[in-house]
Amino acid sequence: MRWNADSIPPFPAIALKALNLMSGTDTSLLELCNLIRSDIAFSTAVLRIANSPLVAFSKNITSVLQASMLLGFQRLRSVVITVGLKAYLTGSFTPLIQSCWHHSVACAIIAERSAKWRFLDKDFAYTAGILHDIGRVALVTFMPEAYALVIERGADHPRDLLQVEQELCGIDHCQAGRSLVTAWNLPQAFLAITTCHHDLEAPAPGTGSLIPPSCELADALGFGVIPCRSGRSYAEILAGFPEPGQTRFPADAEALASEIANEIQAIELA
After folding, report:
1. Based on the domain organization, do 161 and 212 belong to the same domain?
2. Looking at residue 233, what DSSP letter applies?
3. Is the per-residue pLDDT at 5 higher than 80?
């Protein structure tokens, strides 16, 4: 079976529209709110997250409009993208797909924290983390047998894995992600995110530069999809983060892994 981006099931329409509402104005907030209210499943999921410990509002949120006003455009959009990825994976939640989901959310959480500490766009960082590995999600879904062979062979380093994917799938997950960004008409900013998230030397510009180290750190914390035989330690990866990330992340890897696992669980229960 050959890769064909047009044959991949489309990402949920509401999530795609949310991604393309980039302005963050009052008008786009209302538009996004109306999109969510038009879909029962998304409305329910957004309300559950708005009432979860992740958000911790002091009162119960009883409507999408109320959630929209309290969350604000950027945070609401991040929630919708997370719900969208979760919905995209529903029905094929194999252990491998679950690993892809955990890795994406872990990367998003790490990138969001690092962006906040550097006064960058933390909501874009979170969204980029959620979507950076969408090419791998598609490969695992579209070519499960071929990707099982990729896992069986493994690799020494994450970048070596791209060559294994090329040999066994005809395309690597970075190229697959890039083709999906184009096929789904996503904002251009996500081209570099999906293509360069294993390139620590030439990452995506701006906030997107946080994705490669966040991806690597997620792997090191146990949220990887395919364990590599060689890899840098938690301390070594932290040393590569721009300040103040080096000193703001917990010194103990297990402490950070536990925090992230709790956040993932809260999202899954929502």
Report:
1. yes
2. -
3. yes
Average pLDDT over residues 40-58: 85
CB contact set of 40 (below 8 Å; sequence gap of 6+)? none
Count the domains in the chain.
Answer: 2
Residues 98 and 189 in one domain: yes
DSSP state letter for 117: H
Considering only CA atoms, which of 96, 99, 97 is closest in space to residue 87?
Answer: 97
Contacts of 36 (CB under 8 A, 6+ apart): 14, 42, 43, 46, 64, 68, 76, 80
Of the three residues 42, 68, 90, the one that is the final residue of a domain is 90
Average pLDDT over residues 170-179: 96
Rounded-to-10 torsion of CA 138, 260, 79, 22: -80
Last residue of a domain, one of 49, 74, 90: 90
CATH assignment of the domain containing 176: 1.10.3210.10
Instruction: Examine the domain organization and report whether 139 and 260 are in the same domain.
Output: yes
- Asked if residue 173 and residue 46 are part of one domain, the reply reads no
**pTM score of the predicted model:** 0.91
Q: CA-to-CA distance for 111 and 116, rounded, in angstroms?
A: 9
What DSSP character marks residue 220? I
pLDDT given for residue 91 in this prediction: 67
Q: Work out the average pLDDT over 184-193.
A: 91
Among candidates 9, 2, 210, 4, which has minimal Cα distance to 115? 210
